[in-house]
């Protein structure tokens, strides 16, 4: 992406934005040096639901915070140079700031619903950042895809959080870690776990949701370096690591993470070989690393949690600089296609140096923190079952990581492009060069002096395994078997790098034939199917026939009665037998007579009059049941309705619309539906009458109506005082409906007047 000419931000404005993550980083370092972890803060948020605005800073949160603020500072500096002169640079800075705050909220939240709020903010801001260049169709499509995938996963995550909080009786994450291991594996907990998997896997681009991340490379490079390598895509991994102490003893948890993570890592590495765009190559290698992190979360043992912490940090320190390098190459040459790039070290020496340092860490070379992390990963995998298979898989994945690092660090800067001619290139300014250099150099410094961060990684390991003692961690450069593993991985990786182009052509040929089976193709088909499904449902349900609408509503009510009745009823119990009063019996007979008389009628006017008997019968039942005010209301409403409706029908008949007043539709299914509704309602009434009456609610209103609402009519007091807002809402709906219908009524009146004028004979003009 080239800088766009125009009025950009001033240096002072850019410095003010850069100061935000820098100040947050400084405050975090002071906090960590002055206080022991963990730190907790909480405020009541929704006390009635037991939801708190609770925050926790432990070792895992502190590690994530260092990446969010540290990488964030570098990204903010880099964005100032990358988008220098861009008229929308301030918008990018504002969105990045909101995103940084949301990320801080996510990794420090100690309540499921607090975490979810910040989680969704990151998805929404990510949508705006990926679609930053919204004038381009590719950016809009990529932003839409990222939002649909991660947003759908977010909805699943919310459902999982609700089920988990209900099953455990709390939404506090700290409490859940203690409570869930003691709970049996109930269906609610299993459903909650599967929904949480969906949310975490979509966020961290795990298979089968992996396809959205490389497409998000349509975003500007600062966004890719911050969101899609160092922070947001690791939120899913963070959530899994946070909940690992609660569910880690479940085989479903362990094997799901191992299977999905392994498949994602393998597929990401293979798809990296298919790409020619440098940013997309790095994006697919990020998908592979995220899969490796998920596998490590699923592994048992203290070594696995150490490997998770080390890889989280190492990946941020080499992948963000490599994305910066890709951005500098695009900024300096106008292309990211590796076939057109080569020998750029002469024109871009500082970027080439950053690429070498970051590539060495990604390849796991000694004297880099990537070497420390990969040594920890190998130790964690060998500690589990199938150590030989784990070593082989580690070698293969590491070899392809070496090949990807060589493409970014060697092919682009040190290898001649062959027959292709490299475009003119130039090095960027300090804002483009310093961030990748500093981060890549930090990855080397921590590789030489790993003791600087070993206590933090140990604290993160303890946070992922609560109850364990502090980990006596001594990260160090070790010779022996570790170097042998590096040598084998390096040899295989350089072989893959040497045959990158033939492998690419073979995978491209195979991928073209398997493209219809790819998850991205399924996503596109699902997207196209949505409007077709909506049209099909609309045609089936919005057919314009009122009897059909009424029948559907009644059917849904009957189904709900059956489902709820079966789920909550242990057995049938008849109520105590008692003879009804003559008034109640007369009202019931009148209701039944009206219903039976209405069944055979085909003339809708007669049908209306017959059905009106059911309303008057209901008023009689209310009267003898001790509710005269309700009976009076029912009588008045029924009378007004019958009179008004009959008048309208008569008017329509006089105007020649009589054919529409006769119902010739099928009646058998309506009779069956009415019978089912009647039987269901009767069964519920019998069940309710057989259940001991709970007078708590009626006693509450009866004792408080006079002293608190100054009224003796309890029904009126409930309507006007206790549920006044609800009543006001109902009145408001009626009023707004009238206001909405008023223009339609006026249009009908104007149409009637216009029709009358056309029908009137024309007057003769005076001679």
UniProtKB/TrEMBL annotation:
Signal peptide: none
Compartments, as annotated in UniProt: Cell membrane; Membrane
GO cellular component, one term: plasma membrane
Recorded coiled-coil stretches: none
Keyword DNA repair on entry: no
InterPro entries: CPA3_Na-H_Antiporter_A (IPR050616), MrpA_C/MbhD (IPR025383), MrpA_C/MbhE (IPR046806), ND/Mrp_TM (IPR001750), Proton_antipo_N (IPR001516)
Domain of life: Bacteria
Residue ranges annotated for the MrpA C-terminal/MbhE domain, each copy included: 671-747
Keywords, comma-separated and alphabetical: Antiport, Cell membrane, Ion transport, Membrane, Transmembrane, Transmembrane helix, Transport
Domain called MrpA C-terminal/MbhD: residue spans: 589-653
Membrane topology term: Multi-pass membrane protein
Membrane-spanning intervals of the chain: 12-33, 53-80, 92-110, 116-134, 146-165, 185-202, 255-274, 281-299, 305-326, 347-372, 392-410, 431-453, 473-500, 549-573, 579-599, 606-625, 631-650, 671-690, 731-749
GO terms classed as biological process: monoatomic ion transport
Domain NADH-Ubiquinone oxidoreductase (complex I) chain 5 N-terminal, first and last residues per copy: 45-91
Protein name: Na(+)/H(+) antiporter subunit A
